[in-house]
From TrEMBL:
Site entry (Interaction with substrate tRNA), positions: 102, 124
Protein name per its UniProtKB record: tRNA dimethylallyltransferase
Pfam families with a match to the protein in the record: IPPT
EC number: 2.5.1.75
Keyword match tRNA-binding: no
């Protein structure tokens, strides 16, 4: 029986992971699991760059807009549900594809989640109060002091992630990052990471263009509809929080858009920092021909199946 292989398509935002995932899915007759945590929510469409209807019709996709922003949904929930889905997919095909810009979610599926100490709920309440009274910057500074390594890769604009790292660091009296990359869970499949790469200036140019297209496609109207729910965790993300600031009257629309571009570029930089620590990735240039992308991936999968 041939080895089951999960191909993880990774890379910075706006580089073309969706297209590569569809290309590989069609070649292998496989289905795609999305591990982009921003695309799980059906109320968030334009600002999360959800694949178009045309793209979704080109290959079967799972875990896209399957939840509401009003439902709590953690990386642990995703791991459990995605493993169940993979089990069913592998009964039909030896290959499955996972595509995502959320490194934590991809790694949770590939390797399993790391084990963390139990946290006293009162500590979480205290940190949430600190966030409310002293602002995001105070949380950022404390995490940078306690765990500079994790600070380099975390989305520093996401208070939920920052508080989670802080509460673990404080509880254990050691950095949150020291709990990462523990002994991995045994999976019933092998895996291979296929990463898309491009010069940084190309990545940044694509990000800037994507934001302009989002605005043309009605991102401001989407954010305006979500404004009454702006405190929900799902909405504490790039593209939404900057426009909430504009709707609050704290800045001009042009400034808000420039902040979306800047913060998305920062996000891409953190994604690359995370990915460069992974020696397993087969890197493919973003402008390689489709044939080359397929051929290199096919050879890569063969080496995994025969390892």
């Amino acid at each position: 029986m041939k080895t089951k292989v999960l191909i993880a398509v990774v890379g910075p935002t706006a580089i073309g992971k969706t297209s590569l995932g569809i290309l590989l899915a069609n070649h292998f007759g496989a289905e795609i699991i999305s591990a982009d945590s921003r695309q799980f929510f059906k109320e968030m469409n334009i600002g999360t760059a959800v694949p178009s209807t045309e793209e979704l019709n080109q290959a079967p996709h799972h875990f896209i807009q399957h939840k509401s922003i009003f439902e709590p949904y953690s990386v642990g929930d995703f791991e459990k549900e995605a493993i169940e889905k993979l089990d069913s997919l592998f009964k039909l095909n030896n290959i499955a594809i996972v595509v995502g810009g959320s490194g934590l979610y991809v790694d949770a599926l590939v390797h399993g989640l790391d084990e963390f100490p139990e946290v006293d709920p009162s500590l979480r309440e205290k940190l949430n109060l600190q966030l409310e009274v002293e602002g995001l910057e105070s949380i950022q500074k404390e995490l940078k002091l306690r765990d500079p390594d994790y600070y380099e890769i975390v989305d520093t604009d996401n208070p939920h992630r920052l508080i989670r790292a802080l509460e673990v660091s404080i509880t254990a009296n050691k950095p949150y990052s020291s709990f990462l990359n523990q002994e991995k869970k045994k999976r019933a499949f092998q895996h291979g990471y296929v990463g898309m790469q491009a010069p940084r200036e190309i990545i940044y140019e694509r990000i800037n263009t994507r934001v302009d297209v989002m605005m043309e496609n009605g991102l401001l109207e989407e954010v305006r509809k979500l404004y009454p729910h702006r405190d929900l965790n799902a909405l504490q993300t790039v593209g939404y929080k900057e426009l909430f600031e504009y709707l609050d009257g704290h800045c001009s629309l042009d400034f808000a858009v420039s902040e979306i571009k800047k913060n998305t570029r920062r996000f891409a930089k953190r994604q690359l920092t995370w990915l460069r620590k992974n020696p397993e990735i087969l890197w493919i240039d973003h402008n390689a021909s489709p044939e080359d992308m397929i051929n290199r991936t096919v050879e890569f999968v063969k080496t995994i199946q025969h390892a």
